[in-house]
Specification:
- This protein has two domains: about 270 residues, Mur-like, catalytic domain (UDP-N-acetylmuramoyl-L-alanine:D-glutamate ligase, 3-Layer(aba) Sandwich); about 140 residues, Alpha-Beta Complex (Protein-Tyrosine Phosphatase, Chain A).
- Helix content is about 40%, strand content about 20%.
- The strands form three sheets. It has an eight-stranded mixed beta sheet, sandwiched between helices.
Length: about 425
């Protein structure tokens, strides 16, 4: 990653600035970005708006990153987009000392696909940070900031304030910033940026938020206080208090786009319809029963803490075995520490990423957190899942479960393996 916008600016100029063909909602933060993007997308489509959605990373196929009307772009169309952008990328490569990056290329493809569709609005998640992210060419009228915590410290900074300052870069002059609950240091950085550019900020807990939540079959029932009024009896088919927070943030973003607040509440029946259709693959996703196998892409301590709280509140496992594989730049000790109170034992392994933390190194970290007797190292992810299932079913335990977590890469590979196995 090279921290500048020179190549993407040049590339999009050559392509005719496709990102200017539609308004957008731009989303940054540390955790919850993709799910919040999917919620915003569903709500907008429930209101009859044709959407484009750009998220990252992908779980199983790169085509997932570019979605039209809620569906991943067709592989043939993806190839056409590549062929359309490639000649211009070659021109840009010849002009700059650094070549167009993989993410910059994909971002240009997404923006072109949305302009060609055409979409009425794009819902776009940043790749990393905000200020120097290729998606920040949008200058979006609505900027969303999900909860910020320590992550990517080698690139974004080693303090909450520094990371928030980078992410605040997506807040542009005149925009409405919809901000989820934040640590004080992050809130201060976001407030400073908004003041600097004259943006309006809508804060969770002050301007919008979750009034109440109760567990329901397949998810939870919410009452959400929006900017334009109260939205009650919202069925959200996802687990965890953090997903309720994501829902409140998503609704506030859609309100901002439609100008709700000044105009009152949005149509509550349409809002209910939109939320009822929300899915979040790889986020506390149940992919198998007997024993229950859950997938969750938590990859930092904050994400693991939210996952642990949801597991404790909404699941009743007598024995929960975690399969964990992480990337080498992540806080593995912090992540495992958050999971330890709710996990019986852990099977440590590695995914196929070249950045995967080696199994032996992860096993050493896990042993410090769980103790040697609760840690089993297994070289391959498929064997690790099989081992975890056997452990969950062992000694006649009826309420056994398996959790696969530690990385989006890990979860994507597990999804493919479990589907291939007929689960």
């Amino acid at each position: 990653m090279v921290p500048d916008l020179d190549r993407i600016t040049d590339l999009l100029d050559l392509l005719g600035s496709p990102q200017r063909a539609y308004p957008s909602i731009h989303i940054t933060g540390t955790n919850g970005k993709t799910t919040t993007a999917r919620m915003i997308d569903e709500l907008l489509r429930a209101f009859g708006i044709r959407t484009g959605r750009y998220t990252s990373p992908d779980l199983e196929s790169v085509t997932e990153r570019i979605a039209l009307d809620g569906q991943p772009i067709d592989p043939a169309r993806f190839a056409e987009m590549y062929d359309e952008v490639a000649p211009y990328a070659e021109i840009v490569d010849a002009r700059h000392p650094d070549r167009v990056t993989y993410f910059e290329f994909l971002t240009a493809m997404g923006f072109v696909a949305f302009a060609d569709a055409p979409v009425e609005i794009a819902v776009v998640e940043v790749g990393l940070g905000g200020r120097w992210d290729a998606t920040n060419m949008l200058n979006a009228p609505v900027a969303v900031v999900t909860p910020i915590s320590l992550d990517h410290v080698g690139i974004l900074g080693d303090t909450i304030a520094a990371i928030a300052a980078e992410k605040a870069g997506i807040i542009h002059p005149g925009a409405i910033a919809v901000v989820a609950s934040q640590p004080n240091a992050a809130a201060d950085a976001l407030r400073s940026r908004a003041d600097e550019v004259g943006a309006t900020v809508r804060w969770q807990d002050a301007d919008f938020g979750v009034r109440s939540r109760t567990l329901a079959v397949g998810g939870q029932l919410l009452d959400i206080a929006g900017v334009g009024g109260v939205y009650d009896d919202i069925l959200l088919p996802l687990h965890g208090a953090y997903q309720a927070g994501n829902a409140a943030t998503a609704l506030a973003a859609v309100e901002a786009f439609f100008g709700a607040g000044e105009r009152g509440r949005l149509d509550i029946d349409v809002v209910r319809e939109g939320f009822a259709q929300v899915t979040s693959p790889g986020r506390l996703e149940v992919v198998r029963r007997g024993p229950t196998v859950l997938l969750d892409g938590a990859h930092n301590p904050a994400g693991a803490a939210a996952l642990a709280a949801a597991l404790e509140e909404e699941f009743d496992f007598d024995r929960l075995v975690a399969v964990v594989a992480v990337l080498d730049d992540k806080d593995a000790a912090g992540l495992l520490g958050e999971l330890e109170p709710v996990v019986t034992e852990v099977v440590v392994t590695a995914n196929t990423s070249p950045r995967a933390l080696p199994v032996d190194a992860l096993a050493e970290v896990a042993a410090e957190v769980f103790g040697d007797d609760r840690v089993t190292p297994v070289a391959r992810l498929d064997d690790a899942i099989e081992r975890a299932v056997a452990l969950a079913e062992g000694t006649g335990v009826v309420g056994g479960g398996v959790l696969v977590t530690g990385s989006i890469v890990t979860v994507g590979e597990a999804r493919r393996l479990l589907r291939r196995g007929g689960s």
